[in-house]
Structure formats: C-alpha cells, structure tokens
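Researcher: Structure prediction, please.
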Amino acid sequence: MVETIQWTDAGVVMIDQTRLPRVEEFVTCTTYEEMAHAIKTMVIRGAPAIGVAAAMGVALGVLKADPAKLDAEFEVICSTLAATRPTAVNLFWAIDRMKKLYASLQGQPIEALREAMVKEAKLVYLEDIAINEAIGAHGAPLVPDGKTVLTHCNAGALATAGFGTALGVIRAAVNAGKNIDVFADETRPFLQGARLTVWELQQDNIPVKLITDNMAGHFLKSGRIGCVVVGADRIARNGDVANKVGTYGVAVLAKENGVPFYVAAPISTLDLTLDHGDQIPIEQRPSTEVTEVFGVPVAPENTQVENPAFDVTPNRYVTGIITEKGVARPPYEESLPRLAQE
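Model: Predicted structure follows.
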C-alpha cells in the first residue's frame, strides 16, 4: 500500500498525486507555505489526507516561526492553510485541533511547545490509519459477495494517511475472503478515478476495470453492481453528502436501479453545525481543468467554463454512512449525532 504522506527529518514527504500514474515522484515540504501550495494544487488530496497535511503544515510552521513573534505567526500559519480548499471539513477540523493544543501550551518553553505540536501532527496521521481500518471493518459486511462494487473518484490510501475510506471498505471485504471486483468511474475532469483509484487497486492486485462516468447508469441497470461505495468531503447533520462532482448522479442512478449507495467517511468529516447540504461551500476549480487534458487544449479558445469540484447528494439517496464508530442509517439527524458522541 502506497505511503501518501510521512513526517521525516527532512520535512513532510508526500507522493505527488498530480503525476500519477505515469510518474511516481515525491515532494518534500519544509515550510507551511509549501504545504499550503501542495494542498491547493492537489499534490495531496482527499479529505482525510488534507486533514493530516494541514496538521503537519501547522507543526512545520511552528518549528520555523520566530519565537518572539510566535502568536502572530501562528495565526498566519493557520489562516494560510485554511484558505487552501473550502469544501473538505477535515482541513478545518485538523487546524482547529492544532489550535486547541497550541492554546493549552501557552507558557511552555518553545522547544517543549514545538515538540508537542509535532507529536500531535504525527498522532493525527496514526489515528487516521486506524480510523480507516475501523471503517473497513464496519463496511465489509455490507459488500455483497460475488458482485461488482462501483466507486467514484479516489477514496483510497491516496486520499488518506493509509488504507482508505471507500477503498478501505473494499480492501476489508477482499481481506475477508469476498469474491468481488471493482468498477472505477474515471471522474472527470481531474480523472482521480482513472489515474489514482485504478493504479492503487492494481498495486494491491484487486480486480478493477475503468469506466467512463457516463457508463455508470448502464452498469447499474445491468444487475452486475452489488453496491456503490464512495467517500465524502463534508456531511451535514441531515446526512446530505458533499463528494467529488458526479457523485450525485451516481446516487440517483443507484436508487433508480435498487443498488445500495454507501458513503464511507470518518467522524471528522461530519459537520454537525450545518443543517443540510445546501449550506456546504462548493469549491470552484480552474477552468483549464475542463478545457485542457494534461495541458493539451480540447475546447475552443475563450470557452466559458463552470467547474465545481463537488456536488451534494441529498440524504434520501444514501443507504448508509459508514464511519469508524459504526454505520449510520436514516434518519441521519438522529444517527449521526449519536455516533459522533460515542
């Protein structure tokens, strides 16, 4: 299983997900500014992985900050990282966690403070892997044996510190002895499914086939698909789910064809401050992601573009939300807060 991100003596090392699958290249961030750039440009991506990266970015910033100006610089560090991507709530969850720790360390010697911040960032990383494995354990029984699982985007080890959320469920089902294979939507326009999910499953020798996004309905109607499992970037209190754009369409098609649609995500992806999905901010990505493919123009010059990175799937299409604490079922207004408090 690929190492998405690691804290090392040289800096935070991560695989460059913009270069996969053709080039396996690693990027080392030694400052919080470099980490912010890596998050914004999707060198690292996926809500849980962004959370880990943000925690490590804060720790990097504290290590390099002037002790005499630390309080002021800490605010800049956190605000810079928070401004990178607006939809994935794990980013803000991780920054808030580091802020709380920093506040609790006031009056401590600078070296003790720095050591504690680094230790916390490493703990966020380790906890994420354990959380993903727990998600997999809760989700594996939901995967029908002898069927195909459809997934959208990349919610695997690459989107987390390791093991994955949606792909963690698939990995756990395979480890449990289930005879399954995977269909991966290509996930236009950034092609995370084609570039990352297929590559990642190939590394683990899990049978996978790539399909274009507009083939999902064809296969959901065929009876071949046993369930859909996707990740999430933010989940509102009522169970509305923000995930990579295209997820909503897959969910509607799944319900039309009687195929269970599951969302796999850690508790840190819940945003219980939001009543419903219309309140989730949707990131707008650069138009070149749509008008170009790997730098090659495919649309006429001066083409106007809308490029939302996410859409929101209403809760009525979600069969269950798989977390590290168990599976939430409708009504989500009751089940999600209950799981979050356990």
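Model: The chain has a mean pLDDT of 97.
Researcher: Thanks, that helps.
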